[in-house]
Amino acid sequence: MVFSLVYSSTTDHDWTQDELVGLLEWSRGWNLDSGVTGLLLYRDCAFMQFLEGDEATVRELFARISADRRHQDVDLMWSNETERRRFADWSMAFREMGDHPVAELGYNDSLNDPSDRRGDVLVDFLSMFRSV
Question: How confident is the model at residue 41 (pLDDT cuts 50, 70, 90)?
Answer without folding.
Answer: confident
